[in-house]
């Protein structure tokens, strides 16, 4: 008889790959910046590092396809030398464009075989990075822009939860399937308050100031191509999707911890427990890191 394991057991000895999708300024980089330890940030045609600063972030200079290829060929040495705990690819859209430019540079009239190579190159590379993350035991985050289709709101965001990463159509489903956790980032307006919970007023308008908060959308709908592979009963009971406010790495650690507790006790934990436990985990981690 087959041994059936929970997701927590399956992922116990390996790091899940995170695919974070969204438009510009929606918090993708901010979310990736919450991951633990030193982060190796691979910028591929983006300027994500402008919103992530600190001594715990290193970024090898990659300007050409050859630079990126050299990094991949020597990733083990980079990991050993830089001692990073998290690898961030910013973005996989930029990675695919880099592959495209390399093909065009070699032949301005690429043939069918060249296009097949371009199509498969992204998936092959992402699979390679997953293998490296498993062997090196580091976290892996892929940042990606989302495809724009369907109705949009005033901020230019799609109103539907049906969304996909903006890569070659032949790769879209494959890329989503390769990530254990896929999350869409959006923003919403919130009134700004002080430590006492009172509205912060704008002296010019006399109205309360409005700020932005990041929202991470996770869905179980197969049609939306978005998922959170989990055994947590409270999440199974949600209709289609649920939201994390200002999501962090600690939220997902909390989900996995609650899965383990639920498996032992048989007790279903409400979604609110994720937020409380995430805060506790973050406090303990920062204390341990001396921050």
Describe the secondary structure blueprint for this structure.
Blueprint: H1 7-10, E1 17-22, H2 28-32, E2 39-43, E3 57-58, H3 65-73, H4 75-82, E4 86-90, H5 92-106, H6 112-136, E5 139-144, H7 172-178, E6 181-191, E7 210-219, H8 233-236, E8 241-245, H9 249-265, H10 272-288
Parallel strand pairs: 1-5, 1-6, 2-3, 2-4, 4-5
Antiparallel strand pairs: 6-7, 7-8
Helix pairs in contact: 5-6, 9-10
Domains, number = 2
Overall radius of gyration: 20 Å
H/E element sequence: HEHEEHHEHHEHEEHEHH
How confident is the prediction overall: mean pLDDT?
A: 77
CATH superfamily of the largest domain: P-loop containing nucleotide triphosphate hydrolases
Q: How many separate helices?
A: 10
Helix coverage percent of residues? 25-40%
How widely separated are the two ends? 49 Å
**Named CATH architecture of the largest domain:** 3-Layer(aba) Sandwich
SS content category: alpha/beta
Shape: globular
Strand content: 15-25%
The CATH topology of the largest domain is Rossmann fold
- Per DSSP E runs of 2 or more residues, the count of β-strands stands at 8
In short:
The protein is 38% helix and 17% strand. The chain is α/β, with parallel strands linked by helices.
